[in-house]
Amino acid sequence: MNEAAQASLLASEYGKRTIQVFREVEDALVSIETYKEELVAQESRTTTAIGSEELAHVRYDEGSTTYLEVLEQQRQSFSAQLDLLSNRLNLLNSYIRLYKALGGG
């Protein structure tokens, strides 16, 4: 293969890699923005679930509900907190993907 053909091949490979890197950066940025929006909604859901759990305890202590309701509210609160942590993990992983796409180690 002559030098001109080899240079053309290398330029083509460089162009493909550059496009791939831009795509990876864009995907990471979109993921970050999406997870940030989801995080706000999930934080609100979690706060509401924790409040409902506390209210169920008060109602149980006053004798106006069963302990089954308390347990159900605890389950929902726990589920909301797990979802919130999962969302935070996804957001952090998106930042890591962005860092790597920008050439980080």
Provide an overview of this structure.
This protein has 2 helices and no strands. The protein has 105 residues and is an all-alpha fold. The protein has helices at residues 3-61, 67-101. The two termini are 34 Å apart. It has one domain (27-101). The chain is rod-shaped and about 90 Å long.
A few lines on this structure:
The chain is mainly alpha-helical and 105 residues long.
Low-pLDDT stretches:
none
Mean pLDDT: 94
Quick one: how many beta strands?
0
Quick one: biggest sheet?
none
The rough form would be described as: rod-shaped
Distinct helical segment count = 2
Measured distance between first and last alpha carbons: 34 Å
* Proportion of residues in β-strands: under 5%
SS content category: mainly alpha
State the order of secondary-structure elements, H for helix, E for strand: HH
Number of spatially distinct domains: 1
Rg over C-alpha atoms, rounded to the nearest angstrom: 25 Å
How helix-rich are the residues, as a percent range? over 70%
What is the element layout, followed by pairings?
Layout: H1 3-61, H2 67-101
Q: What are its keywords?
A:
0% strand, mainly alpha, 105 residues, single chain
